[in-house]
Amino acid sequence: MNNQDVFQNLINKLDKSPIFTMSLGSKELFHSNFWAYLMNHKDYKLLLYSLFGVLEPSEPIEIKREYKNRDIVIVYRGKEFVIENKIKSYPDFEQLKRYGEDANMVCGIVTGINKPPFVLPDKWSFVSYSKIASILRDVITDDKYLESIVLDYCEVLESINTLMDLSLKETDNRLSYWTPNLSLLDEIRLMDVFRKLKADDFAISCKDIELNFKELCKTHNGWRFNISRSFHNGKATLSFEILKYIEDKYAGGIGIQIEDNQFRLFLGFAEGSKYNVSDIFNIGLELGWFDSSFSKKENRRVFGYDTSMSKNPCSYSGRWVYQYFDTWIKNKQDIQEYSKLKEIINDYLNKAVSLLDKLDKKYE
């Protein structure tokens, strides 16, 4: 069976599942609610005791949802055992570390499709969705109605797990959100899960960039470097931002944003700035951050890279201005490999750092 057949079979299986259909409204919320329900069931408490082996079935427990902003908290002998459910993304290391510093927390479990590509902080371990499905399959119960629901649910977990694993392998070491197989994910509304996992995967591979430019920016007064991830309008966005703060108040920034196939070079000023879009664009041209040679008719390139950009410049909210080139154009341009993209990101961020002293005068 080829990959396309495997994808299609899994898509068909999920499409026919009522449990999967119900989960689409709020994916992580659905799973967490269902687990909490099962952990309170006399037979399916096996899930609870399998995940946290130190709990004694004879002792009382309390299961809380969204307690202290944690997905699930199990209170046992006054202490807390935590589950953080991450179907849509990898967990945030600093958030887990902060949760672990709570004196009441004994230990925690991160759940998800793939193991996070970094060592988890103290007190935390990882349990995959496929492992949870295997635990639930071992439950023996006389409640045949619930058993049928749980078995369907296990099929859903295993199918999602397999689909996302295949999707990430299909785009291994490439920041690509499309192949003929991946397009099938749209049929069952799982493209958002894949896009977030893919963006997180690349962002984590850029940890070296993050550490390097955080240090470089420390030598420039009021400038801070950050890699942020967001998701809106069905697209994952990665921002490599060098932001200016004056007395801890945001003043603007310069950097790179990658959204789908767009590699954006941006320059921004805070709301209330005296500069409009045209002013900001001209500042970028003056600094050499924007390419003055672009022409829709004669030179459809930005700094030597082909672009589908038609409006020049592009902007958001009147204070955030950018140009972009494409990371992929069929039969023409392909710079989606992680190593190539990171090389280009490094080059432009180094260029941005070299402009910070000049930009300081614009933010006065």
Which terms summarize this structure?
364 residues, alpha+beta, six-stranded antiparallel beta sheet, 40% helix, globular
Strand content: 15-25%
Q: Briefly note the structural class of the backbone.
A: alpha+beta
Domains (count): 2
Helix content: 25-40%
Q: Over all CA atoms, what is the radius of gyration? A: 24 Å
**Secondary-structure element series:** HHHHEEEHEEHHHHEEEEHEEEEEEHH
Detailed description of the structure:
By secondary structure, the protein is α+β, with helices and mostly antiparallel strands. It folds into two domains: 3-176, no CATH class; 206-362, no CATH class. Helix content is 40%, strand content 25%. The strands form four sheets. A six-stranded antiparallel sheet has the order 6-7-8-9-13-12. It has a five-stranded mixed sheet with strand order 1-2-3-4-5, with helices on both faces. A hairpin with a 2-residue loop joins strand 10 (301-302) and strand 11. The longest helix is centred in the middle third of the chain and has 27 residues, at 144-170. The radius of gyration is 24 Å and the shape is globular. It starts with a helix and ends with a helix. The model has no long low-confidence stretch (mean pLDDT 92).
